[in-house]
Design a protein that fits this description.
Elements (H helix, E strand, L loop, with lengths): L1 H12 L4 H5 L1 H32 L2 H28 L2 H25 L4 H21 L1
Helix pairs in contact: 3-4, 4-6, 5-6
Length: about 140
């Protein structure tokens, strides 16, 4: 009886993973979202490091937060309206593709040695704009 009580408590405390086992569509969404989140965090770190190595300024690195926040706030307010009007699956596909292109742009400017702070800020702002619509649509 004690073992059943512990098992029941453990089951209530841990995440229910049955949707991952039972639904291939949900499993693909979950895996894709997880990989995207990891990639986003890696990009955030890489851009911050690149800005610091370019400028040696903590304020310039802080500027990344500003150019991320402004589009997130502005477009986040309208994101719900956009999401309600269009097909979410298509919207997620479009915004995910655009986010991949922006990531490609960030990689290209890094590999090509375009050491322009304004370009980094612009790409991060565009990424934030698409992300503020992509996240809620998911």
């Amino acid at each position: 009886m004690h073992m059943n009580t512990e098992r029941g408590l453990l089951r209530r405390l841990l995440m229910d993973v049955s949707p991952l086992r039972e639904s291939p569509d949900y499993r693909r969404l979950w895996i894709g979202s997880t990989l995207s989140g990891v990639g986003t965090q890696m990009t955030t770190f890489a851009v911050a490091l690149q800005v610091y190595l370019l400028t040696h300024s903590s304020a310039a690195v802080g500027g990344i937060a500003l150019v991320t926040a402004i589009p997130s706030i502005c477009f986040g307010l309208f994101g719900g309206s956009i999401i309600d009007v269009v097909d979410r699956r298509k919207l997620v596909l479009v915004t995910s593709t655009l986010l991949a292109l922006v990531s490609g742009g960030l990689a290209a400017q890094a590999f090509l040695g375009f050491d322009h702070l304004w370009l980094l800020y612009l790409l991060v702002a565009v990424q934030s704009t698409f992300g503020s619509i992509n996240g809620p649509a998911r």
